[in-house]
Amino acid sequence: MTEIIEQGQRARQSARKLALLETSQKNDLLATIAAALRANSTAIMTENAKDLAVAAENGVTEPMMARLRLDENAIEIISQGVEQVMKLADPVGEGVNAWTNEAGLKIAEERVPFGVVAIIYESRPNVTVDAAVLCLKAGNATILRGGKEAIHSNRALVKVIQAALRAFGLEEAVQLVQSTERASAKQLMQLNGYVDVLIPRGSAGLIQTVVQEATIPVIETGTGNCHIYVDASADQAQAEAIIINAKVQRPSACNAVETVLVHEAIAATFLPGLLTKLQQKGIEIRGDETVQSLNESIVPATIHDYETEFLDLIIAIKVVDSTATAMNHIERYSTKHSEAILTNSYADAQLFKKGVDAAVVYVNASTRFTDGFEFGFGAEIGISTQKLHARGPMGLTQLTSVKYVVSGDGQIRH
């Protein structure tokens, strides 16, 4: 029997125990984990330094290094995130709907845990803690399979979490696949009978591999090739500030803007200032012919640039002749994550909202708000870009299913 199958069996046993816990008991688990993370911060940072050293040797970019780095501040933020999840309402047992049918049966629809949630992800060790505590609060056991980039960090974090859970007899409610070989990921993708749902987080390649090869249900969390369209009627000062925020504040995030589309009516007045300010922030700009004509240092944009989630200090800019043209561009290149229009036209805003197919559509705001915390969900498990079960930021409620509880007093069907 392989190690991953054994982990699946242990997770299934833990899930049965978790399903019986009251909210207060789950919150006690999380409080213990938060305290343990703080108490073991030095040991966690020591292991994280090993991952950082390997990343530096491999020439990893600074935005990606930032995703990987765990210092005292990062660990404190992660610990506070655990405590924020404690404060969130427990969805388990929540009544979704209830009615009495003609036979006098009382039918109630209630939220219940999935059971066992598996998560395959890359490079970001904070996901290890976010995923574990969200699953625990929603009553789920979890099997985590991180990437080789953060293996030392992930092992340290799960070791701390398991030690905290040991006092509750639930040490195996959170488990880490120790191997980073591709074979281990594939085996987890096909762990039928043990895993109820699989959630991939990471690059487009990883997500598509999981979607194509998994034999268990998958909730697809998508990459973020996000767009901002600046309409002719937009407040140009406001638009400039939004674009700079969406690109610069955290370029390695999946909700950072990657392509800006600008209406041709304002290109000559709006773009020169925007281009200069982006360049002052260290952004490499890849533009079409119109954009290039406004600044000689612009790199010519290619179809590949419009297709790419840069996750870096790079942005593509294109001039379009209408809202409809902007929407057509987005339809072709969007990963259906987050899309924004900046406009003072009610008609154009309505057209964009109705016509753009994405998990989150913005009017006059930065795409950086697509986040479980910003939406009031607490830490998130990911941003779902699919349409079945969950879409957008996935918090506690999205980590549950439902069941029907039917109460009667002897009814039989005739």
TrEMBL record:
Question: Broadest EC class?
Answer: oxidoreductase
* InterPro entries reported in the protein's UniProt record: Ald_DH/histidinol_DH, Ald_DH_C, Ald_DH_N, Aldehyde_DH_dom, G-glutamylP_reductase_CS, Glu-5-SA_DH, GPR_dom
According to its UniProt entry, the protein's GO biological process terms are: L-proline biosynthetic process
Where found?
Answer: Cytoplasm
Q: In which pathway does it act?
A: Amino-acid biosynthesis; L-proline biosynthesis; L-glutamate 5-semialdehyde from L-glutamate: step 2/2
Keyword field:
Amino-acid biosynthesis, Cytoplasm, NADP, Oxidoreductase, Proline biosynthesis
Q: Does the keyword Transferase apply?
A: no
| Pfam families linked | Aldedh
Q: What is its EC number?
A: 1.2.1.41
Q: Which reaction does it catalyse?
A: L-glutamate 5-semialdehyde + phosphate + NADP(+) = L-glutamyl 5-phosphate + NADPH + H(+)
UniProt xrefs under PROSITE patterns? PROA
Please name the Gene3D superfamilies in this protein's record.
Answer: Aldehyde Dehydrogenase, Chain A, domain 1, Aldehyde Dehydrogenase, Chain A, domain 2
Identify the GO cellular component terms for this protein.
Answer: cytoplasm
Q: Could you say which protein family the record assigns here?
A: Belongs to the gamma-glutamyl phosphate reductase family.
- What this protein is called in its record is Gamma-glutamyl phosphate reductase
